[in-house]
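During the first year of the project, the team set up a workflow for recording each protein of interest as an amino acid sequence followed immediately by a discrete structure-token representation. This format lets reviewers and collaborators read both layers of information side by side without switching files. As required by the reporting guidelines, we include two representative entries from the current panel. The first entry is reproduced here exactly as it appears in our internal archive.
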Amino acid sequence: MFKRSFQSKDRAGKSVKPSKRSFRDHQKLKLQQTLDSPPVGSTLTSPIVTLVVGHEPRIFAAHENVLSLSPFFAAALKGQFYESSAKRVELPDEDPRIFSCILEYLYKGDYYPRLLFNKRHASFELEDAQDLQNLGGRGSVEPTICIASAGGALLKDTVIYCAAERYGLDELKRLALRKQGLQSGITVDVILRSARYAYDNTPDSDSKLRAHYLALIIRSRKTFKRSGTMQLEMEIGGSKLYASRLS
């Protein structure tokens, strides 16, 4: 008679609470399965593309198949150095910090901080949003990014949204907009600067982003009217697209 090889402590123990899961976790599982057993013609057998990003160039590398999920890169790579192993794309006007998020999305289906579904509250939230102890690196949630050409801090999700527009990544646009909707405590000057950036870098037909900013400004109209920043924006013409909404 064979004895059971496990002990009683293995049969009973403390229950483990299910962890919060990203709504993109299934895509990560598929990626891991590909890494474990890549079929012929899969991502891992795809040529590596070198990407030179920014005015002070930073080098990235990515699989051609992954980049080609973006219509922009699919067109850029089509026929380029077709028989060469040194494929290369230069993006001098792109911010490396934003492009890093783009690549993370293309590979993982999300970018940091991830969008997580909290089963207990039946709502979405941002990864590490309540982690007040971890104030540095990827453990902190910083909603803004400084863009010198825009004159200061912008909402990071807005900049990613505009990049997704350039690269033809509609699902990323929806994800960025959803994440931005979870941000709070954003200062007036950042909201106005981000709105102006959004209007300048998306087509007039993009009603979703514009509706998002109009709703945000309307909800904060009293704060905006008291703000000296608002007066400055009015003087330089940055608010004329939504001034009528504040009356």
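The second entry, processed by the same pipeline in the following quarter, appears below.
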Amino acid sequence: MQLVDELSMIYTTCIMCYATFSYAKPRQFNILLAIGLVALAAFITAYYHYLQDPVFHQNAYAILTATVLIRCMFVMELNLRPSFRMNQKELELHAKSPMTPEDKAAAMAQDRRNLDILHTMWWMIVYGISIFLGGFAIWSVDNVYCSTLRMWRRDIGLPWGILLEGHGWW
């Protein structure tokens, strides 16, 4: 049963990986990406079933999660940070006409807005990573001290014993 619980984490992260890497890509790329991720998930499932080693699952999950996180940060920066978008001269060449003062003011307002959004998104990332790592730490402690925590839960009883249920918090 534990195998099924852990593999659902891999499958969900593969879906997030597909969503992250397939956005605004050609259909053929998306099909190949989907086939590759299904093959990766099948390989992880088969190999994990063969090994029965939770460390393999933890490493596979960590690599997939880090890949999704890094890709999301890259896309966020590339699409929102003004220094990565076209500068004024490139915009003027692209439009084939000089920018009016109103257009410049609108572009500067959008740059300020995008920087505010970036700032908020980075704080959301910090908050999300902190919660994720906190849950992972609780889960790891629960794995190491499972028998001791189970004994304490029985001694304390309900409802307070639930607080020592590390797998539940993860």
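For the second entry, the following points were noted during internal review. The helical segments are 2-22, 27-51, 54-80, 88-95, 101-144, 146-156, 166-169. The chain has a mean pLDDT of 83. Both points are flagged for discussion at the upcoming steering committee meeting.
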